[in-house]
Amino acid sequence: MTSNIVARSKTRYLAYEQRHQAILNAALRLFNARGYTATRIVDIAAEADVVEPVIYSHFENKKQLFIQCFESIEEELIFRFRAVEAKYYDDEINYIKGTMNAYLDFLMNDPNKSMYLIHMFSCMDEPEFRILIDRFMNRCISRIEREIDKAKQKGTISNPLSSRFLAGMLVVQGSASVLLRNYIDPVLFDRQNLLETVAKCCGID
Which among 3, 56, 130, 160 is placed 20 to 30 Å from 147, CA to CA? Predict the structure, then answer.
């Protein structure tokens, strides 16, 4: 009897989580296509193939849904960065390159989510969104900055510019590359060359 109750509870929970993710995915698509202001909850419900009240059983309002879309992307990226950190715990150069590669992999292989980040930057006039963007950028930059500091102490990076500036350049260049590939022949857009060029510009051989 107890096992049946547990099984049913687990099934309901999994169904809830699947529906939650489906709503997030639908919202991502519509926010990308129409922008935050023009996207309505009723449209997201239709895109997710649910009725509108179901949206409100998962999210308080459109703003919270927009924020959770962003936070899901942020946490996915941080998860990737932590995996790189575990692999290159005491190897700063490969950690930096690995993080850049993980960032590019995410941005280039999931255009829906990478474009959402760009849309998020267009909402920086909204104080609540600005806080999220600042947190995200600081988390990304600080992780790289820490490793550049360690590499400078070991003498493996000799660039005299501040570690935070170099880290910021690496993060921004990764994002810019997503837009760049729209204007360059795919044959010429070589990912490895891009990584090496960005790294050399920052004094990372």
Answer: 130
- Rounded to whole angstroms, the Cα distance separating 203 from 165 reads 12
> In angstroms, rounded to a whole number, what is the distance separating the alpha carbons of residues 23 and 171?
29
Mean pLDDT, the chain, integer: 83
Largest CA distance in the chain: 68
Residue 13 above 60 pLDDT? Answer: no
Residues 170/144, Cβ–Cβ less than 8 Å: yes
For the record, the structure tokens of 4 come out as 């049946």
φ, ψ of residue 122 in degrees (nearest 5): -75, -10
Q: What is the CATH number of domain 64-205?
A: 1.10.357.10
Is there a contact between 73 and 83 (Cβ–Cβ < 8 Å)?
no
- Distance CA(131)–CA(122), nearest Å, equals 13
Q: What is the DSSP letter of 164?
A: H
Phi/psi at 119 (5° precision): -60, -40
* CATH class for the domain made up of 1-59: mainly alpha
Q: Report CA-CA distances (Å) from 31 to 23, 44, 130.
A: 12, 9, 17
Span(s) in the chain for CATH 1.10.10.60: 1-59
Q: With contact defined as beta carbons under 8 Å apart, do 139 and 146 qualify?
A: no
C-alpha 158: how far from chain center: 29
In degrees, rounded to 5, the angle at the alpha carbon of residue 162 between the alpha carbons of residues 156 and 165 is 110
